[in-house]
User: Fold this.
Amino acid sequence: MSLCSFYSIIERAGILKEGYRDVTLNFIDTHCHIIHGVDDGPASMETSIEMARLAMDDGITTVVATPHIVEGYYDGHDRSERLRQLGSRLSDASIFLELVAGAEVPMSACLTGDAGLLKPLALNGGIYLLMETADTTFEQLAQAVYQIRLCGLYPILAHPERTRFVQDNPSRLAEIVARGEVFCQLTAASLDGTFGKSLQKSSLVLARSGLMHLVASDAHSTGRRKPCLSGAYEILRKELGETAARMVTHENPRRVLESQELENAVRNSGADVSGRSVLARFMHRRR
Ligand SMILES: [Fe+2]
Assistant:
């Protein structure tokens, strides 16, 4: 049984005090490949349903479906209909999970600056666009951010902790983020150690440096890449405190869905990252 399921049961039994309720449930996952048959996510409806069951069991109440948009393969035009069909099956299976339409947009599409292409792909049809950032350079990223902003959208960088230039020189990412026009979404499995100690360490450097606005599962399956946020939540709660952990797993995701301004999880949560800059210490070690 997961931690969140445990809390869910005792909360329903009225055992927990009021003050504990807010921190245990209602995660909102803003990056999940839960639609089957459109990308490298689940191959069948049954696996999509099982992913939804795992998400609910982990304390996730809302999932933003973010299939890869790949030119010539999948353009995302039927996401709403696919989500309606999945939602109907979930209802039949007594799985209570809200499904919201989104997409993970490749850098090449972002660089076009084509508002007609990009705006319909924004998360929940709002102002935030989830941008794939793997294998990109700083210059490409800066150009893509510029193009997205010209469309009136705000880019959310998917798993920047896996991007080479960020790993080599996170202060370059900090330059862009400091302008307040781009936001960082770290992957839960990077933070909780599922993807290894090295990625966990570099993810925590970004988190403690304020380069984290959201944490999402980027789930693709029911295995190693399953929809799970509770492990990352617990680590962030210990590292940065409850307010910051809550901000990136619930509060900011809710703001994404409502097209509201996002908070910096470190700066605005009172998290204790005092003393010498975490980023500066990281950079010193790599010299
Ligand atoms: Fe993804």
